[in-house]
Amino acid sequence: MPVDSVTLSKKPHVLIVGGGFAGLQCAKQLAEAEVNITLMDRHNYHLFQPLLYQVATAALSPADIAAPIRRILRKQQNVRVVMETLLGADLEARVANFSSGDVSYDYLILATGVTHSYFGRDDWAPLAPGLKTVDDALEIRRRILLAYEAAEWEADTAARQADLTFIVVGGGPTGVELAGALKEIAAQTVPKDFRNINTTTAKVVLVEAADRLLGALPEKLGMRALQDLQQMGVEVRLNSLVTDIQSGGLTIGTEFLTAENIIWAAGVRGSDIAENLGVELDQQGRVVVAADLSIAGFPDTYVIGDLAHVTGKDSGQQIPGVAQAAIQMGEYVAKEICRKLREETKNKPFIYTDRGSMATIGRNRAVATIAGHQFTGFFAWLIWGVVHIFPLVNFRRKLTVLFAWVWSYFSRSKNVRLITGESKIKVKKPFGIVSQEDDNSP
Amino acid sequence: MPVDSVTLSKKPHVLIVGGGFAGLQCAKQLAEAEVNITLMDRHNYHLFQPLLYQVATAALSPADIAAPIRRILRKQQNVRVVMETLLGADLEARVANFSSGDVSYDYLILATGVTHSYFGRDDWAPLAPGLKTVDDALEIRRRILLAYEAAEWEADTAARQADLTFIVVGGGPTGVELAGALKEIAAQTVPKDFRNINTTTAKVVLVEAADRLLGALPEKLGMRALQDLQQMGVEVRLNSLVTDIQSGGLTIGTEFLTAENIIWAAGVRGSDIAENLGVELDQQGRVVVAADLSIAGFPDTYVIGDLAHVTGKDSGQQIPGVAQAAIQMGEYVAKEICRKLREETKNKPFIYTDRGSMATIGRNRAVATIAGHQFTGFFAWLIWGVVHIFPLVNFRRKLTVLFAWVWSYFSRSKNVRLITGESKIKVKKPFGIVSQEDDNSP
After folding, report:
1. In the prediction, which pLDDT does B8 show?
2. CB A9 within 8 A of CB A104
3. Does B99 lie at the interface with A, CB-CB under 8 angstroms?
């Protein structure tokens, strides 16, 4: 039995599950509190998720946007970090279940986020991977790079075009960013690397079910993103609901689009653990919480970050699934716990302060809304850069990412084009390597 | 059928299999030759193998030491790059076999290198992974980091010590570098990250069958490496032949050493393709070649790099399996082919010019022999740094690696401590998470 501060102490035990923006912020905010904190995550790192698409598109390495949670919290003595996966919890008894045993707690904070939703069609998952984890990003990177390798040696013209067709499903920020980056790779990064294919002919299609892009941002910015993408050569299909995905393409209504590469950025749902708790969920499988982010009937059980569906007095407020909202929720709940420890009764509901949103589209192109002002083009892109470099967890990572960007800005290069690991799918057809002796072409 | 330069042209076709130091150098050296080159590799990247142990020990990201072969050769118009695995070849008919079809050639250059050898005990492979590829390095990194995670939550003292015991088998440069880096992680990098374990008590054991370390270097330097490692706290066991490896430890004669983490750096053998060629192999499965690096009876089939066992007039010369020798062989064969194209008959045998060897042991510690002079300590470490940064493939990577090093030198930190992917082994035992209510410790 490990002799540690938590098991020895009689201080209240705060169990935080999930080391994303919400959970990490909550733990940090409790640094001075007279509690023992356990922060659990199924990974050993905190991920700067807004830049994950850059790992998927070979611009950054995983280590550029992720840092061990232990390292981030190494100086905070009232927290222990565990790499574990929550299986369930008895909210009444205040006991959480893990494969390695049970843990009792005084406060439970669920911050496990969301995962991809295929709207009931989980069979689409292997055909159209989503982008939520580092391993997802590496899988997508692998597929993108293998597609060019396959095309280079594909003898059949139609099959070669299918290898060079990339469809991104979902026109939110992730979809827009992925589509833009995919087009930049094809048009700027790899053309000179291949001998048999003209990579600038690679087709990037962005499919969105609604009638506009970036639904969470003002309409004008959605329009601008559409224009920018079209100017870059991305084919954008609005009002297009994907009705089926098969190996080799997808169906929109009666139309079949041929593509060897499909990426899913369309929907999210609450992480699986939510279903095991026996509490109220919304249609996306997120946990319905009161205005103070606690679960009805369990005032010391909180849900924060993307997993929370906030109701109550301010239920009119739309809280987007972004880092900023997660951070604010983490802070709020930490303060709530401190308030309870001081036995104060006044209880203010959580109110989300929208400091702005943004999406990048490509080199010199982004859209942003900040404090009611809207920005587009190069200036928005600069703002985006600043906002995404500065929060990065430590000094070194900041400089590395900045350096990678400045470099890739001037060189138009992507430096992380490595195919590592085994792909979950195998390249389906053999490369069309031609024996010289069999060759009868002119 | 792809219409490309090779299939259209009547120029001689040079097929190079393997994009390591030897194959890449050979392709580059043929840039001006009137030939068509196909460079094949099972990966899409060239790997700077001497720094691979730094990926395994979380100091560098894969992209810091690897670059797409296509990118390196993008400006060389007489080469095409294919990501493929050689299955076999009919040396008489000059046809190479791949899963995707056959390729005919005029010159074949085999540069597929070596892989780990477990001396007939391939069942040891999952228990003691070796370090040859990027995926190997990521697997070892995963195991090292998971070992600390497991130890942190292990209740049993003996089991915890086993989690914190790392055995490296093999006292060559890779083994020495790994052992030194493992000790640095334990003593300098992670101590503050954990709450329940004192990572400075982690045990690193280096096991070597011979009576000295770094057998390929002068004896004095092997002695110095031994002293340096011992000073750092590594337990070095010379004259220790590993007779068995099981889950949880290994056997040396009658002694069983308990350890949850074993890394294999003891032996190499020629890559599998060598066996399929029906040619003479040495005891390590490397291809026996004549003094001009060609296979007896097949003057236009060459073997270069680690896979070659050179015989002939200068058979007395020991050619070590290092980057330098591979590069020299690649250059030599490229010149040989040019000579044949010019139909000159004079044929000088390959002679290896030893420009020196070195191994790093840790911060400020290395051993090197250069042009007959021996260096140790800080100065050798500086030389090692310079020698290993400057050949790195492009400018950006050079700066990134330099930056990562300078940073980790001053901060004593390792920034790539991410556990990604699924480990080939599962962590065997559940973490000893203690319920607070069950806890009766004082």
Report:
1. 52
2. no
3. yes
Look up the pTM and report it.
0.87
Written as one letter, the residue type at A405 is W
Q: Is A158 on the interface with B (CB under 8 A)?
A: no
The pLDDT value recorded for residue A336 is 96
CB contact under 8 A, B134 and A411: no
Residue B390 phi/psi, 5° resolution? -70, -35
Average pLDDT of span A6-34: 90
pLDDT higher for A66 or A239? Answer: A239
- Name the pLDDT band for A408 (thresholds 50, 70, 90): low
* Nearest-by-CA chain A residue for B36: A436
Q: Does B407 touch chain A (CB under 8 A)?
A: yes
CA angle B30, B273, B271 (to 5 degrees): 90
SS3 of residue A246 by DSSP: strand
Nearby residues of B135 by Cβ (< 8 Å), 6 or more positions away: A420, A421, A422
Neighbour count for residue B77 (Cβ, 10 Å): 11
pLDDT in tens, A121-173: 999 999 999 999 999 999 999 999 999 999 998 889 999 999 999 999 999 99
- Which region among A109-113, A227-231, B252-256, B377-381 has the lowest average model confidence (pLDDT)? B377-381
| Backbone φ and ψ of B260, nearest 5° | -85, -10
From the candidates A415, A437, A438, which should be mutated to test the interface with B, based on the most B CB atoms within 10 A? A415
What phi, psi does B385 have (nearest 5°)? -60, -50
Q: pLDDT tens for residues B408-432?
A: 666 666 667 777 776 554 443 334 3
Taking the alpha carbons at both ends of chain A, their separation in whole angstroms is: 77
Q: Cα(A381)–Cα(A224) distance, rounded to whole angstroms?
A: 13
Report chain B residues whose CB lies below 8 A from the CB of A11: none
Contact assignment for B71 to A193 by CB distance below 8 Å:
yes
Torsions phi, psi for B303 (to 5 deg): -125, 125
Report whether pLDDT(B311) > 90. no
Identify the CA nearest to A243 among candidates A235, A234, A253: A253
Which one of A139, A154, A177, A208 is the catalytic residue?
Answer: A177
Helix (H) or strand (E) holding A280: none
The answer to whether the CB of A234 falls within 8 A of the CB of A202 is no
What is d(CA A284, CA A117) in angstroms, rounded to the nearest whole number?
A: 8
Q: What is the distance in angstroms between the Cα of B404 and the nearest Cα belonging to chain A? A: 8
Tell me the pLDDT band of A401, cut-offs 50, 70 and 90: low
**Rounded CA gap, B331 and B325, in Å?**
10
Q: Is B97 on the interface with A (CB under 8 A)?
A: no
What contacts A406, CB < 8 A, 6 or more positions away? none
Nearest by Cα to B424 from B129, B187, B30: B129
The residue among B22, B27, B30 whose CA lies nearest residue B47 is B22
pLDDT band at B406 (very low <50, low <70, confident <90, very high): low
pLDDT tens digits for range B209-238:
999 999 988 999 999 999 999 999 999 999
CB A3 within 8 A of CB B196: yes
B112 vs B100: which has the higher pLDDT: B112
Q: Which stretches within B248-393 are classed as H helix?
A: 323-341, 377-389
Q: Each residue of B252-275: pLDDT tens digit?
A: 999 999 999 999 999 889 999 999
Q: Closest by alpha carbon to A229, among A161, A148, A175?
A: A175
- Quote the minimal CA–CA distance from B343 to chain A in Å: 23
Strand partners, A98: A86, A101
* Residue contact A196–B3, C-beta within 8 A: yes
CB interface of A with B, residues 411-440, below 8 Å = 411, 413, 415-422, 430-437, 439
DSSP letter at B349 equals P
CB < 8 Å to B404, chain A: 400
